[in-house]
Amino acid sequence: xxxxxxxxxxxxxxxxxxxxxxxxxxxxxxxxxxxxxxxxxxxxxxxxxxxxxxxxxxxxxxxxxxxxxxxxxxxxxxxxxxxxxxxxxxxxxxxxxxxxxxxxxxxxxxxxxxxxxxxxxxxxxxxxxxxxxxxxxxxxxxxxxxxxxxxxxxxxxxxxxxxxxxxxxxxxxxxxxxxxxxxxxxxxxxxxxxxxxxxxxxxxxxxxxxxxxxxxxxxxxxxxxxxxxxxxxxxxxxxxxxxxxxxxxxxxxxxxxxxxxxxxxxxxxxxxxxx
Length: 275
Hints:
The chain is mainly α. The chain has one domain (35-271): MetI-like fold (Orthogonal Bundle), CATH 1.10.3720.10. It has 13 helices and no strands. It has helices spanning 2-33, 56-64, 67-98, 104-114, 123-132, 139-143, 150-162, 165-173, 178-189, 191-207, 210-215, 224-235, 239-272.
């Protein structure tokens, strides 16, 4: 019996190790290729480890395109997206969980039903709206259309519903209005879910590609993902430079996820499972 258990444990760790290698190898290959010479990166058979570490590839990539400006734009858009999405999610979740008004459950059902609509379907409508408002090449064009996200509202609503109604009524008896109850009691208690939403919004905003590509025409308004696409035409067949630029864009998200992955998983579990 004990031998069978050891075999199962060994098989489990073998499969986990295999899946980890399959998942992480593309990232390793990207970073290894970014440190190769122009000849080594295309030679056959390929080398797993660079024969000579070409750290100057990163410097060349940074000078060929204004990645510093792209980085600043991405940070600004990500920060604005996090703040606006969290505020909208908190207010909407509180309204759908604690406020009583006619048609509340029906409206929330419509919200949930909208999750079935692919985001690409709304791009044309959003683009026409942004054009009519003359918001092209502005930060608001990159942030406003995606301030409200049904998934984040749903996550917070499920957490808010776990808080006893008696606490809400007790606060009302003590003279606290809805606004004070929300920010003084509800928000601190939902800190884990809110942090999770911040992380998810940040990752999505950092990696966004299609929408920024449509609403930004000026080079100084590009984000990192769009800047990398434009960089491909400048770098041509210099694949080591493309890999260096890709590494520059990818590392911040990877580092953030490594340090914050537990909060992401805990927040999703707490927000998605109603006790």
